[in-house]
Design goal:
five-stranded mixed sheet; 5 strands
Amino acid sequence: MSDLTAAHPVRRPRPTSVDQRNDVWLAAGLFVSAVLSTALGSVAGVYGSDATEGMQWALLYSLGLTAPLAVRRRFPEVVVVVIAVVFFVGVTVRIPDLYVSNIAMFIAMYTVGAWVDDRRRALWVRVGVIVAMFVWLIVTMFQTAIDPSDEGLSRAGVFSPFAAMLLLQLLVNAGFFGGAYYMGDRAYAAAMSRSALEQRTRELEREREVTAAQAVALDRVRIARELHDVVAHHVSAMGVQAGAARAVLERDPDAARTALLGIEESARSAIADLRQLLETLRTTAGDTDGASTVQLSALAELVAHANDNGLPTTLTVVGDPVELPDLVQVNIYRVAQEALTNARRHGGPDAAADLRLRYGADAVELEVVNTGRSVAAPMRPGLGLVGMRERAAASGGVLETGPRGRGGFLVRLRVPLAAPVGTGAPRAGVGA
């Protein structure tokens, strides 16, 4: 964000068409007010006999004083200089207007502070106008003070009415220009704060869209992983049973019939698991009680299923079982399921597996070792291994995978009992 700001300095949003239209209406209203103020001032005898007579001068003065305000937000520096010059000329030649000129000068000074992005330039333009005005005011006061005539306020006394009037003029002008300066800066700061807030709101909206898209993608990955674990396990078993049925179909119909019954049972189990998975995915977070689709108590059924489908498998539980979070239980179960599926798929016809579940003092460990063919060279990790790694990370555990030196494959998952979910750092291995 800072690099972007350095490359592209923050600028106040440019005036809109509505802003420019409002400025035109402001200039028109002040023009009418200036004409009326000048006419009434002439009737009231402002400046007395020194006042400039003739409405043509009043109209010209009013136009020069107010017309630049129509483009005050587009050219604020030029506008304030033009109005200051017109103001100086009008007071010098005694145009009888005392109010609208001050309003126009205040608006022009305020606009420089509120709309100029180059703050250094805005500072120098305003300071230049203020210094010029005060120099002019002091010169005028000096000329009045040395005027030998007796007209005007009394100058008698230490603090005469004349001195009081001069001090009052200084204070009024200081408050006038100081107020315009301060309010312009405050308006610019407020506009920049609104602009930054709007920019941040747009960024947050984009981040929300990205987060929503990521959530959808993660949900799809989770569904795909669950489907892979369920379908691959049962379909692999069905493939083994179908091959056995084809091999003995001619010479041993009873054995073929048994294999076909196994295929039917695997298909029913797959449908049941898929239905349970879909029901779990359709259940909202507020409706679920935290139950998972599978628990570690189902490992015995998983081993029995592997034995029934041509992969001799043993199950050993070491230590006293402890209560584990549902997420950890389902992840350990799915890792065991995927490891047995890979052993049946890649271990060869003579493969056998040993599944061990150890409950330690500080961790629970799952180890699945199978005999059979070894992986001769590292293979690109498949979806099964990627899913096991993700499950290990989601449980805060560590996954070890790789071929055994004397043949077969090893999968070991270790989950600390006190590990927070999602902090694991699974180590890479080779998979099937």
